[in-house]
């Protein structure tokens, strides 16, 4: 790859900015194009697993992220009526990671911290209000056409990285199928100024119920009683305008915990959830990562983390290519590693998590919850479980894929 050619990253979300910073730190010229006028504010995701927190250090934003976030050392699985089923202490991972906890902080904080790295990285060119238009591949380069405030421009680039979300224009031009399905129900996400800890909830908990399961996360907030975010399913027959109305939201929250529906609700939204993986993550000099390559339900907090893991892996491959490595072999290894663990771990575990919470068959439900109780009660089994749920196992598996 000619060193003089920049790498174009389509999409200024967490994955796009992570790969851009990782490459710019390694002396690549990088152009990031983001169609919004500033970094988007997405309040749906914001739980980072231990190995991702480690990666923040390498990206130069570790200290800022940890100062902005909440450290969550324990998480729960609960039954809506029976209470706590299992509690997992990430302290069991103290010999595997310097950060044995989940870090809760909104993902838009990460993109902004990464964006601020451009002050120290003059080779990182951020272009807002700029859209990807098309690309044209050649043997030794790729021509990327973009449209921004100054009009239409074609960049002579070494590679194009598609990090432009689930509706990726880059993936669509590649002609790559986005295999999978969409869940019938939507997710209602509401942030509440309320203290759920006084009712026994850990700062991260998953609540099983055959009718109305829930996932809760405590998020950063200035002072008591704290800000707690809940994700609750909304059935297909409920229109969006009803689901987004405050009376409906308050009724659902009150049903989850009496008094919660009376709390201040600074934010609420509704969105559809998909389980999809691109048939391939690469076509020549075009490579996909993050939501452009794979999307999943948020139960287990794996999608956002996977985007960062993709980014760090891909940046390492591009460094090897610049240093003389075989481009085809290395990029195909990226695809095998990241697509492989996406299917084997992220998709499988996130689907299993959802099935566990929403199981309607009483016997199957009891069996699965009993198994979880036994796992949490056995330190060895709990440790193995945490290696998987914290995504340490998936990263180790990816590294082993040749």
In short, what is this structure?
The protein is of the alpha+beta class and 402 residues long.
Comma- or semicolon-separated keywords:
single chain; 402 residues; alpha+beta; FAD/NAD(P)-binding domain; eight-stranded mixed β-sheet; six-stranded mixed β-sheet; 37% helix; globular
Measured by DSSP, the beta-strand proportion falls in 25-35%
Q: What's the CATH first level of the domain at 7-70 and 102-179 and 276-357? A: Alpha Beta
Name the poorly predicted regions.
none
Strand order of the main beta sheet, please? 6-5-14-15-16-13-17-20
Which architecture of the domain at 7-70 and 102-179 and 276-357 does the CATH hierarchy give at level 2? 3-Layer(bba) Sandwich
Mean pLDDT value: 94
Q: Explain this structure to me?
A:
The protein has 402 residues and is α+β, with helices and mostly antiparallel strands. It has a domain at 7-70 and 102-179 and 276-357: FAD/NAD(P)-binding domain (3-Layer(bba) Sandwich), CATH 3.50.50. Helix content is 37%, strand content 29%. It contains 12 helices and 20 strands. It has an 8-stranded mixed sheet with strand order 6-5-14-15-16-13-17-20, with helices on both faces. The model has no long low-confidence stretch (mean pLDDT 94). Keywords: Oxidoreductase. Residues 6-347 form the FAD-binding domain. This is NAD(P)/FAD-dependent oxidoreductase. It holds the Pfam family FAD_binding_3. One of its GO terms (molecular function) is oxidoreductase activity.
